[in-house]
């Protein structure tokens, strides 16, 4: 049975009610970039928005000597749904931190365009790239939901809308968890708890999930995989290593040497998708200064097709980020989590002594990298060898040996948008 590279990710924003005093919101004037409703958003514009936030968040959560994995696309999309219903100062804070330049009335069009670009990949059926959004709301909210918000969720986010009995907390939590599991091939489990639903006071839950599964365009041969040293320090200190299965292959790939280290791009069977691996000279230094400008420089340099001898570990990463409210507050989103000052009046129409605010944000992600290959991937290899039409002098292959800590990004090449990003400090394998 062939094995695959599979990734999945889900984010939950749990919005809850709380009894609050009247006149709780601070009025503010919010200036947004305004564009005509028929404005054509470009792929680079969309990627810049999402990537900028990705690197800001990375600086907040990256931890020295630890594995890390997340989907910035999933987080920005789920927060985008919440932003659509935010107003005044709450909307301003979310927009500034997330990098949304447009008002809640227009920002959703950016996500609609981004979704359309990624749906093209799914339609070709060379890779699975399944994105799903949903709003799970208490039955009581049917008559209190703002119609425009529900319509935007359906039109721009293709979101499902489900009204559930939040008084039956276990059944509701089970329903939401099963929904996420089904859309992530059972990789993401128990993302919402019975306690959260029980304490929500007829609130609602916004969910984004993204699931990716694909074969490499140039697969690794399983017979070439063998146990070897993986150093847990960038300097390859001899007293800091583990024995781990390392995969090997030699083929033509985009490769570049930059001041920070080495870059390699491994394409998937659908050539709109690839994994970019940064093998830094110093993982902590590079990770600490990772930003939009550095990323753009890397991608600009990654333009030379070379014969590369690749060594890469098999690995599996699982990540849960359960303290994102604290992270977002430190980044500048404050009112959204305050039961008195939050303004999500674009979501529900409530009485003066009620308010809607965010209490929980949970992000879970899964990544597994193995040797994978099928006949379709082998056929793609033939098309990949375009350099055979332009003979060059024989040369020794470049050695790219990822046997020490590295960064990896799964990107949509047509837009340069980062769908997943991670840090492999100490690889581990799936349990048998």
Largest beta-sheet characterization: 9 strands, mixed
Rounded to an integer in angstroms, the radius of gyration calculated over CA atoms is 23 Å
Tell me how many strands there are.
15
Number of helices: 11
Mean pLDDT over the full residue set? 83
Strand content: 25-35%
Helix content: 25-40%
- Helix-strand string: EHEHHHEHEHHEEEEEHHEEHEHEEE
Low-confidence blocks of residues: 1-7, 17-29, 373-392
The gross shape turns out to be elongated
Give me the secondary-structure topology:
Layout: E1 5-19, H1 43-61, E2 68-70, H2 72-84, H3 88-98, H4 104-124, E3 128-138, H5 147-156, E4 160-164, H6 169-183, H7 194-198, E5 204-214, E6 226-231, E7 241-258, E8 261-267, E9 273-280, H8 283-288, H9 292-301, E10 305-313, E11 315-321, H10 324-331, E12 354-369, H11 375-384, E13 398-401, E14 406-412, E15 417-424
Parallel strand pairs: 3-4, 10-13
Antiparallel strand pairs: 1-5, 1-12, 2-15, 3-5, 6-7, 7-8, 7-10, 8-9, 9-14, 11-12, 14-15
Helix pairs in contact: 2-3, 2-4, 4-5
Quick structural summary:
The protein has about 425 residues and is of the alpha+beta class. Helices cover about 30% and strands about 30% of the residues.
Task: Give structural attributes.
432 residues, alpha+beta, six-stranded mixed β-sheet, 11 helices, 15 strands, 30% helix, elongated
